[in-house]
Amino acid sequence: xxxxxxxxxGVGMVRFGKHPVSVTLEDLGEQxxxxxxxxxxxxxxxxxxxxVGHVFGGPVAGQRIAVxxxxxxxxxxxxxxxxxxxxxAIREAWTALAAGLHDVVLVIGVEKMTDRISGGVRPDxxxxxxxxxxxxxxxxxxxxxxxxxDHGATREQIAMxxxxxxxxxxxxxxxxxxxxxxxxxVLQARQIAEPLGLLDCSPISDGAAAMVLCxxxxxxxxxxxxxxxxxxxxxxxxxxxxxxxxxxxxxxxxRNAAEQxxxxxxxxxxxxxxxxxxxxxTIAEIVRLEGLGLVPVGEGARWxxxxxxxxxGRLPVNPSGGLLxxxxxxxxxxxxxxxxxxxxxxxxxxxxQVENARVGLAYCKGGTVSGxxxxxxxxxxxxx
Length: 384
Hints:
Blueprint: E1 6-17, H1 25-40, E2 49-53, H2 61-68, E3 76-79, H3 85-98, E4 104-112, H4 128-131, H5 136-151, H6 155-169, H7 183-188, E5 191-193, E6 196-197, E7 206-214, H8 216-222, E8 230-238, H9 252-265, E9 274-276, H10 282-291, H11 300-305, H12 322-325, H13 330-346, E10 359-366, E11 376-383
Parallel strand pairs: 2-3, 2-4, 9-10
Antiparallel strand pairs: 1-7, 1-8, 4-7, 5-6, 8-11, 10-11
């Protein structure tokens, strides 16, 4: 099944990082949205609907931003799917365009994490993960240990994911960190969950990203030039109950998302030129690339160490710097990935440009659920 593509008319982004307390979530979302609208040449009256991804923004955060943009009265929906929230907002916008419900829509991903978490997240007393003190770092540390034992990978190879992504972000003016780091810095960083250290982990961040998407009819309305990047399709799957004896790195949820994406778009792994990957931890980039079928199982760490996933390699991954270096304001991440792919497909990514990029893939994984192999996963495919 192949649905109609959504054309990207304009994108905007606020630099990720630690913004002052005086800068609100609404400020960040508005700034990114105004940039996207200006680039698209779209007035508020031309926008049919707004889709907003956020996690900690509190009630009706999307409506609070929409009012500032003069979009009050338009359909506004809020999407919370943890780290996949922004990507889920894109998926719902693409679906609405394909269904013919709207012709021009605005998608915003936004989060303000560093000074407060509004809307408070409190542990469920019946949540086994919370009761035993499970945290994301611990789970990914177990993943790294299992991967090293199963495939003979080294700690140094896994650490090279951080070295690579920080090297890429030097060229990204929107990245939280814009400094290259050495392998020794990663290996000697403060330990978080053995074998992972501080630089193996994505930071807490503030930020926002936005896109104006349109149908072919909407593209005509905005006078969009031919050849603009398109969202070909966006898969959405959720994790299932873990099977006894199955490896922590089985990545069934990634495989299912990939298979759905290939069916929706008619693209296959061999067509992908550039990847924006959910590298919340160094090992996550490796096992998820393998789960998607983009890298042979057991070879992801070696591919990284040998430069195959670096700029100039056979499959550049995270030219933006990824979550590890661009930053990870959770609700904004999925939209930021799509914005980066837009720049790559336009050929306007500057020093981090992937040569001849024509088809890109973005992957977001939204947390986990006790006893399952993952929360919600979105896989988005774009092309020009």
